[in-house]
Amino acid sequence: MGGGQPVGFSIGLVLGGVFAETIGWRWAFHISAIINSAVFGIAIFGLPKVQDQKADVWSRVKNDIDWIGIVIGSASTALLSYCFR
Question: How much is the pTM?
Answer without folding.
Answer: 0.44
